[in-house]
Each structure stands twice: as C-alpha cells, then as structure tokens.
C-alpha cells in the first residue's frame, strides 16, 4: 500500500511532501539563517587560521551539498550525512558545534515530519481500502475466505497452548470458540432471540459477523495511528522558532519518547537523529502490518482452484483444441470480418459511388418505356388507318403522353354493344389488346417516375444503409476508449479527491467552533495535491498547488482559509466530477 496514486514512487511522493509542507518551508528558512551564521563562522575561522573549524565546516558543506550563496536543500540522504558531524561535534569549538547541532536538529525534524506525513498518507489510503471492503457483503465474505487459513492456525495454536493433554482438546476448543464468538458483539448476542430460527440465521451470518469485526478492528487501529501522526505534525507545526535548537529539541524529544535526554546538546541532537533514522527504516514494515493481505493470503482460493482443476482443464482444452479454434473462428472471427465487409465496407463503397455520380441504381431497364410507347403509337396509327380515322402521328404521340385514348375507347364502346359480332370480326380483341398495351405503358410511366425518385435520393439511401454499422462502431469505440474513472486499489480516484476536499472544509468548519488540529489540515492538503495530479491540467497545476498550500498557511485566519476552500471548489471542483 506504499504506492497509493498512479505512477508515483515513494521518492516522488516524499519530494511532493517536502515541496508542499509548511514544516519543510519553515525548516528551509531556518536553515538559510543557520547557513548565513555558519558562513560568518567560516570567514572568522579563515581569518584566525583555525584550520580545524574551517575543515569541519568545509566538509559539512560538501557532504550536505550546501552552496554558501544559495538556500540549502535537504535530500533523503542528508540525515545520514549529517550524523557523523553531530557525533563528533564535541571535538569542535562551541560555535561550530552549535552550528552543526542546528543543522542536525533541523534536518532531523524535517526528515521526521516528512516521514510521518508520508506514513499518514499511506494510512489514509489503507483506511479507504479497508472501508471499501467493509462496505459490501461480497467483499466481507471474500475477506473471510481469504483469512480462513490464518484463523485456523491461530485457533490451533491457542488450543495447543491451553490444552494440558490430548483428552482435553475438545473442551479447550469449545472454550476458545465460545470466547472468540462472544467477543465479537456481546450486546447483539445478548439481545438476540433464543428460538431455533434465529439461531440458524446467526450461524449462517457468522462469517460476515467475524469478517466485519475484524475489519472494524483494522479500521480502528489505522484511525488511531492517523490521529497519533497528525498530533505529532500539529506539535511540530506549532514550534515558534525553528532556528532555536533548544525549542526544537524540547518539542521533538517527548514525541520520540526520549524521556531522559542528555544534558549535552550534541548528544541530544544525536539521539534525535538516531531515533528519526530508526523510524524511517522501520516505517515500511510498520505500514505493511496495516496494509493489504499478503499475496498468497489474498489469492490462495484462486491458486487452489487452479491446482485442483488446472490439469484436467488443460487436458480438456488440448483434446478439444481444434473444435475450440473452429468455434472461435466461426463465431468471432468470421462474424467480425463479415460485419465489416458486408455492413461497413460495402455500404461505404456504395455511398462513395453515389458521390462520384455513379447512377447504376435503377428498378427499370433504360429503354423499356420508350419501346412500349413506340409500340403503342404504331398500334394506334394502324388502328386509325384501318378505321379510316383522320389523325397524324404527332397527334397520336401527344394523346399517348396525355393518356387520352378517346379514339379507341369510343370505338370500343360501340363494339361491346354487339360483343359476339365484334369478337367474330376481331375488332373487340384488337381494342382490348390496345388497352392492355396502354395499361403497360401507364405502368411503365409510373415505375419510371419511381425510378427517378429513387435516383434523386440515392445518397439518402446510402447514408441509411451505412448508419447502423457506423453507429455500432461509434458506440463500441467510445466504450473502449472513453475516459473511465481512475481506480486505485478499488477506489475511484476522483471520489477520493472530492472526499479529501470535503475533509479540508470540515476541518476548517470545526476549527471555527474551537478544536482544530493543524496536522490534520496539512496532511489532507498534501494528500489532495498528490492524488489529484491526474485531473488538473498542466497549465493550472502551479496555481492549483499554490491555492491549496495557502489553505495550510498558519498565518491565515479560519475565515480566509474557508474562502480559499470555496475558491478551490469553484475553480477546480469540476475537474473531479
């Protein structure tokens, strides 16, 4: 759980803490003052040819990478490098020894404060992790299954320690079980109905009850450690003058449980340096205790299933490999290829052909209407000639275009009065055939009109045919590549940012009522700066960090800080939603 935000290592997080902590800022200011005083000591030692003091200061500057013309910069290794000088400072002059002690005390308190802040940030991440597990029934049940082996080992160990002989194992086991279960929630057990149905329900819910009790204990332990760390940070923030080594030591020693400090300042500083160094190197193991379960403990159910069913499943896969490949090819590969080829590529090609004015789309042959009309004109012209009707070819052509068949219909009306006679003469059949040809021409004209309408809307039909496939591809592309909420250890990062910003405002609101811990506020501000990095645009990062750091400035009033929080909500809140 040391890495609680994406892409950041422990050193990067410590760098962000050092850059944004008000403690580091004040320590840097005090180091600048100490450096100026030490520069004067170096000049004085050079003037009086005090080579011992001059060599000590020169070596100190070299080891700490201090440029006399620039503000000093503390690194992770500064504490290790200053320790030999603090240890041997009793051999130097009083002024040089005091300067070395000042460097050692300031570097130690800065390193310790940054380490405590780092530990608190990790603990907050762990707290969110365990709270998310405790929030759902499925997560609690999974946690119970994961911890079964450890519970059995602890139970067996307790029974073995309490049992006097083999015959007493059963009684001891019952006693241990009763003690463990009665400690889970004694009030709930006392108020529980005693009928059989409720006892059965109690047994069924027992795994969840055990897991909930264990998770609440973990959460309580983490919250206790967070409160302890923020109290340490709060006391360090309230140091009035960091350049006063005695005040720094007087504040830090009780926090490090140094009950009997040495009367010599150098020894006191050395003790603080050693304790801080021990704390830094023991920190990873301490954080691991409250972190996630070990890998094997988390994944043993999955590994057990793989060991139990893996060989048989592998053999089955090997024996049916060809069928599996065929199924995948037929149902996935061929379906996907067919979809792209028939419903994406081909409709797009048709639409592009339309845009290139390729008018192949048609429901009639090109010269069908012309040939039918020409045939009808010849039939009417022959009919008029045989019936001695005076008419010109141009008149017949115009009548056909208008749909006027008066010449034939008037004769047809006379013929149907004597249908048998007209049928025997053949005139009635001829009239009927002419009307059939006329109906064919009318149908061809109607179809030709529809054909023209279709040709005028070819682009629309092309777009309609390609729209479903393009819509499906668009939705699929959006589902795959759209920005999804960032998740870290099962926690949604933007929700964590909103909770952190809300916590900052809550601390300040509580401060207006009296109780206020600067340590809580500083840790929450640094936490928000670190976890919100993926959301804030690069152009606003500098202004955003400055606005948040102003909130943790002790010189501002609570009202001013609340206004700054409101500014952050208004300016940067939308990036977290």
From TrEMBL:
Keywords, sorted A to Z: Membrane, Mitochondrion, Transmembrane, Transmembrane helix
Source organism, top-level taxon: Eukaryota
Matches recorded under InterPro entries: NCA2-like
Source organism of the structure: Diutina rugosa
Transmembrane segments: 459-477
Taxonomic lineage: Eukaryota, Fungi, Dikarya, Ascomycota, Saccharomycotina
Annotated compartments: Mitochondrion membrane
Membrane topology per record: Multi-pass membrane protein
GO CC, alphabetical: mitochondrial outer membrane
Protein name: Nuclear control of ATPase protein 2
């Amino acid at each position: 759980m040391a890495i609680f935000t994406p892409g950041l290592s422990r050193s990067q997080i410590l760098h962000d803490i050092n850059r944004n902590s008000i403690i580091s800022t004040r320590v840097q200011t005090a180091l600048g003052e100490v450096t100026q005083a030490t520069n004067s000591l170096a000049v004085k030692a050079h003037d009086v040819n005090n080579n011992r003091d001059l060599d000590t200061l020169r070596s100190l500057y070299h080891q700490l990478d201090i440029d006399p013309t620039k503000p000093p910069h503390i690194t992770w290794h500064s504490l290790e490098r200053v320790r030999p000088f603090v240890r041997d400072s009793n051999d130097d002059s009083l002024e040089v020894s005091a300067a070395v002690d000042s460097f050692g005390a300031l570097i130690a308190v800065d390193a310790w404060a940054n380490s405590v802040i780092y530990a608190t940030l990790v603990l907050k991440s762990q707290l969110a992790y365990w709270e998310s597990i405790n929030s759902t029934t499925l997560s609690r049940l999974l946690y119970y299954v994961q911890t079964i082996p450890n519970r059995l080992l602890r139970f067996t160990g307790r029974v073995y320690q309490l049992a006097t002989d083999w015959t007493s194992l059963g009684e001891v086991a019952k006693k241990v079980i009763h003690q463990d279960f009665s400690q889970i929630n004694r009030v709930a057990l006392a108020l529980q109905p005693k009928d059989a149905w409720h006892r059965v329900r109690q047994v069924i819910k027992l795994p969840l009850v055990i897991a909930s009790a264990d998770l609440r204990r973990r959460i309580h332990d983490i919250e206790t450690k967070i409160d302890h760390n923020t109290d340490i940070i709060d006391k360090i923030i309230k140091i009035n003058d960091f350049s006063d080594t005695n005040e720094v030591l007087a504040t830090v020693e009780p926090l490090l449980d140094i009950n009997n400090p040495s009367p010599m300042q150098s020894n006191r500083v050395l003790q603080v340096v050693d304790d801080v160094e021990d704390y830094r190197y023991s920190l990873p193991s301490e954080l691991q205790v409250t972190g996630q379960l070990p890998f094997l403990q988390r994944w043993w159910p999955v590994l057990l299933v793989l060991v139990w069913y893996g060989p048989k499943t592998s053999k089955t896969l090997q024996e049916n490999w060809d069928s599996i490949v065929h199924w995948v090819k037929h149902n996935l590969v061929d379906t996907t290829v067919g979809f792209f080829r028939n419903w994406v590529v081909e409709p797009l090609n048709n639409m592009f052909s339309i845009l290139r004015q390729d008018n192949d789309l048609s429901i009639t042959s090109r010269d069908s209407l012309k040939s039918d009309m020409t045939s009808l004109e010849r039939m009417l012209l022959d009919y008029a000639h045989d019936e001695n009707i005076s008419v010109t070819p141009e008149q017949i052509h115009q009548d056909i275009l208008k749909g006027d068949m008066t010449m034939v219909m008037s004769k047809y009306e006379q013929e149907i009065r004597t249908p048998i006679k007209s049928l025997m003469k053949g005139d009635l059949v001829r009239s009927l055939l002419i009307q059939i040809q006329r109906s064919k021409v009318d149908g061809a004209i109607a179809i030709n009109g529809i054909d023209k309408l279709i040709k005028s809307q070819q682009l629309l039909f092309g777009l309609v045919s390609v729209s479903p496939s393009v819509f499906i591809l668009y939705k699929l592309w959006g589902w795959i590549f759209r920005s999804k909420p960032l998740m870290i250890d099962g926690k949604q990062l933007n929700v964590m940012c909103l909770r952190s910003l809300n916590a900052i405002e809550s601390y300040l609101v509580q401060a207006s009522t009296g109780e206020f811990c600067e340590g809580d506020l500083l840790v929450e501000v640094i936490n928000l700066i670190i976890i919100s990095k993926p959301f804030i645009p690069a152009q606003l990062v500098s202004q955003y960090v400055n606005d948040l750091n102003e909130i943790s400035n002790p010189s501002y009033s609570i009202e001013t800080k609340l206004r700054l929080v409101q500014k952050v909500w208004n300016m940067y809140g939308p990036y977290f939603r």
